[in-house]
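2024-03-11 09:14:02 INFO queue: dequeued item Iron-sulfur cluster insertion protein ErpA, len=117
2024-03-11 09:14:02 INFO validating residues
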Amino acid sequence: MTVAEAFDPNAITLSDRAVNKVRELVSEEENTALKLRVFITGGGCSGFQYGFSFDEDAAEDDTTIEREGVTVLVDPMSFPYLAGSEVDYSEGLEGSRFIVNNPNASTTCGCGASFSV
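2024-03-11 09:14:37 INFO prediction written
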């Protein structure tokens, strides 16, 4: 992967469900400055785990992905692990949550919240 590919904001996509849920949550908070931050941390049952939070401000080195008025932020340490992924939203028996469909994950735990590469 070249440096140009590593910072291509189109390499991470958002599903329609994720866009709609982010829009709904931002509306509930009545703060149009909120952006969904997607990140990777160490831990979980498979070595890495996905994290999601809302931030008002993007860091200077964040990659920004925008779709239909929704903004997602990814820090430079997390981006290589997320390149090519789709951020989705799921409602099911396990509850409601954002999920990452990640082609870079060689294994994923049963709950889908952690992975290894």
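2024-03-11 09:14:37 INFO annotate: The first strand starts at residue 13 and ends at 14.
2024-03-11 09:14:38 INFO item closed
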